[in-house]
Design goal:
The chain is an all-alpha fold and 209 residues long. The C terminus is likely disordered.
């Protein structure tokens, strides 16, 4: 792996904090309350946090070998999480179980290859679930690159440039920029966590980093 286990744990911890901000941002939407950060930074807090999550997800994915087995394991964890969220939403009377919602949440959500998911029935279950198709697309692409032995800086730069040119989702762009960032650092034999003061100080706040 390109990152030590302790650094991978640190990244996971930072991602957890960012996910908490995403959930908080979506809570404003569910309660129909205006995000207090939007007038200040010009964009919803959940969008900024979600972009950071995708960037760090790209870093983590690029730092280790992506295989079909690892993708299946990660997908299974995500699938179980979706099931838990669906049951929780039902228990809290946020939504009622129906065949349509179950199929969309536990099935179609993992094989949706559209640039922007168009099925909005999930918005009453958990707004964050819309990002799962984008996550799966990113994982599939990384597995494909790994299997073709094409996971390198040049290919990822081409992917990022193509996504920007096509005005693709900035979450996918963030993911592959994170992957590109790690691979460029590897090619330059540059430890980004000790040579970038911000990251070094940021990770120092994590006890086991």
């Amino acid at each position: 792996p390109l990152l030590s286990k302790s650094l991978q744990e640190s990244i996971a911890s930072v991602r957890f904090g960012l996910v908490a901000l995403v959930v908080l941002g979506h809570a404003y939407q569910l309660c129909q309350v205006k995000d207090p950060w939007q007038p200040i930074i010009g964009i919803e807090m959940s969008s900024v946090a979600c972009s950071c999550v995708f960037f760090m997800s790209g870093m983590g994915t690029a730092s280790r070998t992506s295989t079909v087995d690892s993708c299946i394991k990660r997908s299974r964890k995500l699938w179980i999480t979706c099931g838990g969220m669906l049951l929780m939403a039902t228990a809290l009377s946020v939504t009622q179980l129906s065949p349509e919602i179950v199929v969309q949440t536990m099935g179609l959500n993992f094989v949706d290859w559209t640039a922007t998911p168009t099925n909005r029935i999930l918005k009453h279950v958990a707004p964050s679930l819309w990002s799962i198709p984008l996550t799966m697309q990113c994982w599939y692409i990384m597995v494909l690159l790994e299997s073709l032995n094409r996971k390198n800086s040049a290919v990822l730069l081409t992917i990022v440039s193509s996504l920007v040119g096509l005005n693709a989702s900035y979450y996918m762009i963030s993911f592959f920029m994170g992957s590109l960032f790690v691979l460029v650092a590897r090619d330059l034999k540059w430890d980004v966590y000790t040579n970038i003061p911000f990251l070094k100080c940021f990770l120092a706040l994590i006890p086991w980093s």
